[in-house]
Please model this.
Amino acid sequence: MEMSPIEQLFTLFNETAISLQEELGYSYLEALAETGENLFHGSILQEELSELAVKRLSKQYSEIHLERFSPEEIRRAFQLVILKGMKENVQPNHQMTPDTVGMLVAYLAGKFIKEPSFRLLDPAVGTGNLLMTVLNHISKEISAVGVDIDDILLKLAYVNANLQGHPVQFFNQDSLEPLFIDPVDGVVADLPVGYYPNDIRAAEYQLKAESGHSYSHHLFIEQSVLHTKPGGYLFFVIPNSLFESDQAGKLHEFIKDHVFVQGLLQLPISMFKNTQAAKSIFIVQKKGEGITAPKQALLANLPNLSKRQEMDKILSEIETWFKENKD
Ligand code: SAM
Model:
């Protein structure tokens, strides 16, 4: 039986990554980034390889014609190989954003952001899966910026963007340190949840903890708002417990002062390991001249996405909300 385009790409990424892993002692994810680079540049960039390995890899790359695949096919295949690599060992906080979440964020960003061309920031870009899903599903001219502290994940994101032909500017740094970027029209971020270890830097933030470590997800929200233009929209994947923590009071105040809450969509619990791990999509708009609050925020508990009828009902409620609040 003939392989589907995604299977063909998966097989190429997987087999060539394993070869590089074995030859050079890389981790699977490092080897994946390297093989992606090779494929993008159309040459083998690792100088330490044996002649035999170079021959074998060249043959494998020559059998794939990247231009025959759509960006979505490339993203999905790359997503599957990354998932395989992440099974080995990845902290829960560094996990890739799942497809369903990415699709919802893409749908929402496409509905909220009206400009024909805009600048988008993902300050926790990771492997780039969320950002690429958004870029692949919004047919507008988007110039994107991605930042991540993890060099291997950022390299995967860079390869992901290159292979799919998206011009994204990447920065490998702590996003809570000063960011040297122009203000953006929108932010998408699957926030890393936990304590931020750098108390000295945290002290610069309004949302710092009064004592002990601050929550990095709170600081990420503040940093993202700071870098957004007035009227810009921000889409955060947040833990459901965001507004129930010991530091939630300050966060409420910050939100009231700087943004208008547009919506809170709770993702189905079945998507997560347990209730504590469950997440929502939180949508806000930065305040500015002429920007007003929606009549009411869009609040919904999303059903299991495979439940077609329930999902259609929610989507039609969302459409109605847009007509009443945004058109
Ligand atoms: N959306 C990403 C994707 O599709 O792969 C996944 C985001 S993951 C849930 C959170 C990311 O935040 C991780 O990639 C982690 O490396 C990054 N991160 C954590 N703390 C950070 C910091 N202080 N500055 C920049 N990135 C950070």
